[in-house]
Amino acid sequence: MPRGDSLPALRPDHDRDEELLDNHPAMDSPREECGVFGIYAPERDVARLTFFGLFALQHRGQESAGIAVSDQSHIMVYREMGLVSQVFNEQTLRSLPGQLAIGHVRYSTTGSSEWRNAQPLHRCRDHAAIALAHNGNLVNTDELREQLADRGAGLETTSDTEVIAALLAEHPADDVKDALRHVIPQLRGAFSAVLLTENEVIGFRDPYGVRPLVLGETEGRYVLASETSALDIIGARLVREIDPGELCWLDEEGYHIEQVVGRRQESLCVFEFIYFARPDSVVKGQTLYAARSRMGEILAEESPAEADLVIPVPDTGISAAIGYAARSGITYGEGLIKNRYIGRTFIDPSDELRKLGIRMKLNPLASAIRGKKLVVVDDSIVRGNTTRKLVQMLFEAGAAEIHLRISSPPIIFPCFYGIDMATQDEFIAFERSVNQVAAEIGATSLAYLSLEGLLQATGVPGGSFCTACFSGDYPCEVPESLKAAKFRFEKAAAAIE
Ligand code: SF4
After folding, report:
1. Are 259 and 117 within one domain?
2. Within this chain, do residues 226 and 354 fall inside the same structural domain, yes or no?
3. Where are the beta strands (DSSP E) in 41-178?
4. Distance CA 10, CA 426 (A)
5. Is any ligand 1 atom within 6 A of the Cβ of residue 208?
6. Cα of 217 from ligand 1 centre, angstroms
7. Of all protein residues, whose CA lies closest to atom 2 belonging to ligand 1?
8. Bridge partners, 310 (sequence order)
9. Is residue 414 a part of any domain in this protein?
10. 101 CB near ligand 1 (under 6 Å)
11. Per-residue pLDDT, 496
């Protein structure tokens, strides 16, 4: 069969686009949006290794999962709505034979949550097929869509990933890497992506390095992944991070790296440090558990509280709460018990149970908190609705005082680089002082970690991060049309005390 002629997108005969129950564990935090994985290992079961890689990246996206494999003559894609463990089983993994593979877990930011937007996306080029999986968000999608439409390229989905795939599909270069060398400079915004051809796995990262991408090695073969935790799970070691603007391809010879677009001021999303990436992942040489613990320590120095017990909002507040307790000398303990099996589920809890809301995820340990002055540590507050309910629940369980400590600064600017937050006037910290936010939430006191304290806690000397959702300093220019949809800009300065 000619190359690229066969590209079945395996799809079960049912659509599972029922309303998703948002059971995200952090609840009032920004939503991470995607994880990617790619491996070239002809001797091994690459679909299964990709499954495990995605399993380790599940926290980055719970709406859909997909794997594309190549047997060096055809590419097959299987993608479906749901968690990795819901989408794949023995049968589906066995139906994906190949020597190289990529995978994706998704939380939608651009494009709605439905099957056709699940990734990897596949496209036929003149000379070969490709499959593409993307983490991040382009800010010039509309402009590129218009250009593609003018050239007659049909787009089937609402995702920015399809725009990248379409640009690559229409490019006349025989070698997809040549197409990438022309297409990548046209892309604006955040992108860390993996691409599968019949013979190569290719990774590329935007010139600001907003989203992470790492290179690993296992048994002489190479792996690309959003986080090192996905390397650990398959026994791979970290080789290095893919630098901003680099193209990396894996093939029979090993790996190759080329600077394909000029590197800009590096701007890794600082929320990878605060909350997105797993605490056991290593970013810029720092284990995130240790960095988050330092955030708690600095928070304790900046904003002490007289209290009997430090408790985290599990799981994302745990590392910072441990640091806060260690530095303050206040006892650390559990005060909120999380349902360990919570995740995104397709089972509708019914209206009656839905009203219980937060209690499906967290339940206070009344015996531990009754009569106590609590320091409650969480990673961030976006709209504040869940935090308000949490505070109320802890008071109802008998807490005497609740001193809320947040291991990041107030969020007052929206994200355009792929993190689902809110429009500016939905942020509880927008146009409110810290004391006003505390009153809104019902906490005895509230304090946020300073931006300086946050950057110090990362442990990256001279580290260069995107901090736009705190500072409004967007590293990559955002078109006015996008800003208009999410900004109440003229009032934003008033929100900072
Ligand atoms: S705006 Fe905030 S969430 Fe978005 S990339 Fe920058 S730091 Fe991350």
Report:
1. yes
2. no
3. 64-70, 75-81, 100-106, 121-124, 129-138
4. 40
5. no
6. 29
7. 469
8. 332, 375
9. yes
10. no
11. 39
CATH of the domain at 362: 3.40.50.2020
Looking at the structure, tell me whether residues 291 and 253 fall in a common domain: no
Atom of ligand 1 nearest to the CA of 272: 8
Q: What is the arrangement of strands in the sheet containing 129-138, beginning at the earlier edge strand?
A: 121-124, 129-138, 189-196, 201-205, 246-251, 254-259
Other CB atoms within 10 A of residue 477 CB: 11
Average pLDDT, the chain: 88
1, part of any domain: no
Identify the bridge partners of residue 40 per DSSP, sorted by sequence position.
Answer: 100, 222
Residue 469 Cβ inside 6 Å of ligand 1? The answer reads yes
Structural domain that includes position 184: 9-266
**pLDDT value of position 271:** 95
What are 16's two structure tokens? 């599972």
Cα 423 from chain centre: 19
Residue 426, judged by CB atoms within 10 A of its CB (0-12, 13-18, 19+), counts as: middle
Q: What is the mean pLDDT of residues 269-284?
A: 95
Tokens in use for 99?
A: 């020597």
- Asked whether residue 290 falls in the same domain as residue 209, the answer is no
Decide: 117 and 132 in contact? Cβ < 8 Å: no
Examine residue 471 and state whether it is found in any structural domain, yes or no: yes
Decide if pLDDT at 23 tops 50. no
Which residues on neighbouring strands pair with residue 134, listed in sequence order?
193
Q: Which two tokens stand for residue 404?
A: 């809320």
Query: How far apart are alpha carbons 204 and 243 in whole angstroms?
Result: 9
Statement to judge: residues 252 and 347 lie in one domain: no
Ligand 1 pocket member 163 (CB < 6 A) = no
Residues 362 and 235 in one domain: no
Closest residue by CA, ligand 1 atom 8: 269
**Domain tally, the chain:** 2
Cα–Cα dist 393/442, whole Å: 11
Domain boundary among 239, 266, 293: 266
| Residues 80 and 184 placed together within one structural domain of the fold | yes
Helix (H, G, I), strand (E, B) or coil at 122: strand
Mean per-residue pLDDT for 421-446? 92
Whether residue 34 lies in the annotated active site: yes
pTM over 0.85: yes
Query: pLDDT, tens digit, for every residue of 69-118?
Result: 999 999 999 999 999 999 999 999 999 999 999 999 998 655 556 777 88
Tokens read off for 51: 């499954």
d(CA 186, CA 180): 10
**276 occurs within a structural domain:** no
Residues 335 and 197 in one domain: no
Nearest to 463 by CA among 284, 331, 215, 323: 284
Q: Supply the residue whose CA is at minimum distance from atom 5 of ligand 1.
A: 269
